[in-house]
Amino acid sequence: MARKLIVACGSGVATSTTIAEKIKNRFENDGIHFPVEAVDYKSILSELRNASIYVYIAKPDQAVLDEAERLNVDVYPGIPFLTGMGDQEVYEKIVESTKK
């Protein structure tokens, strides 16, 4: 399994890039060296094969969640990074996932 965090939204440009940058900045501030990449949701099934952490914008469909589970990819919500509500709790869980 690749050690990479992916953030997916519909186009892989706007929202996912914003959240990916926020996570990258926090990683840098905390001295965590872990790749972060924004991707589009249309390619999520193939992207999961190259990831160990998946941060979603809109709740993924069951097939995506099942594939993430099969591949042992940890899945977290990304909206807290936009709203600022609950982002620290989600971030702490992501940091734990980077240590696996």
Report on the architecture of this protein:
This protein has 100 residues and is an alpha/beta fold. The protein has one domain. It is 46% helix and 18% strand. The protein is built from 5 helices and 4 strands; from the N terminus they run E-H-E-H-E-H-E-H-H. Strands 2-1-3-4 form a 4-stranded parallel beta sheet, sandwiched between helices. Strand 3 (53-56), helix 3 (62-70) and strand 4 form a beta-alpha-beta unit. The longest helix has 15 residues, at 15-29. The protein is globular. The mean pLDDT is 92.
Give a summary of the structure in a few sentences:
The protein is an alpha/beta fold. It has helices at 15-29, 44-48, 62-70, 79-83, 87-98, and strands at residues 5-9, 36-40, 53-56, 74-77. The chain has one domain (15-99).
